[in-house]
Design a protein that fits this description.
Layout (H helix, E strand, L loop, with lengths): L1 H20 L4 H25 L5 H25 L4 H29 L4 H26 L6 H20 L3 H8 L1
Helix pairs in contact: 1-4, 1-5, 1-6, 2-4, 3-4, 3-6, 5-6
Length: 181
């Protein structure tokens, strides 16, 4: 849910940041948005291939780490006030790219933990994702100032860090499987 919230912060603010702050044309922004969607496809493809060698929980931890590093990177370049949009695009591609894998691996682990409640669990999970998306979209809109990327970057950073920290606070999948049997 936290990863999804960061994605919604990106969706809410990025058009203003790139079109009004950096001066991209709407067409250029469309290509940039497509590039970020392409990054989701790349990370999802990597995730699918990696499932042959790693568990969904291991990949979830790896993708959450990439998300957190990307979020911290975005906050850092905002702090440095780098004027080139290239630095922002790189961080966003990494953050946005792993959101699909985080969602898929989270759902796989959730359904493995709660196989008898799969419908309820998946419904609640998706509801939580959209609720967090709404909260983060609203929050980024409150903090947004002069179309500067700071609000978007900070909300993404907070979301990414919360994603990783909440994962690290959960029990391992073996403990869940044993307790649910």
């Amino acid at each position: 849910s936290f990863s999804f919230g960061g994605m919604f912060a990106y969706i809410t603010a990025s058009s203003f940041v790139f079109i009004q702050y950096y001066g991209f044309s709407p067409t250029q922004y469309g290509y940039l948005f497509a590039f970020n969607l392409f990054s989701i496809l790349v990370f999802t493809s990597i995730n699918t291939r990696a499932l042959k060698y790693c568990s969904a929980l291991q990949l979830l931890k790896i993708m959450a780490c990439i998300s957190c590093i990307s979020g911290l990177y975005l906050a850092y370049i905002t702090y440095l006030n780098l004027q080139s949009s290239v630095w922002l695009i790189i961080g966003l591609a990494c953050f946005v790219g792993v959101t699909g894998s985080i969602g898929a691996n989270s759902m796989a682990n959730l359904l493995r933990i709660l196989p008898k409640q799969a419908g309820t669990a998946s419904g609640l999970s998706v509801s939580m994702q959209f609720a967090m998306g709404a909260v983060m979209s609203y929050t980024v809109s409150l903090l947004f100032n002069n179309n500067h990327p700071a609000a978007m970057s900070i909300i993404i950073c907070v979301s990414a860090c919360l994603c990783l920290f909440s994962l690290l606070l959960t029990k391992g999948s073996k403990e869940y499987i044993v307790s649910s049997n």
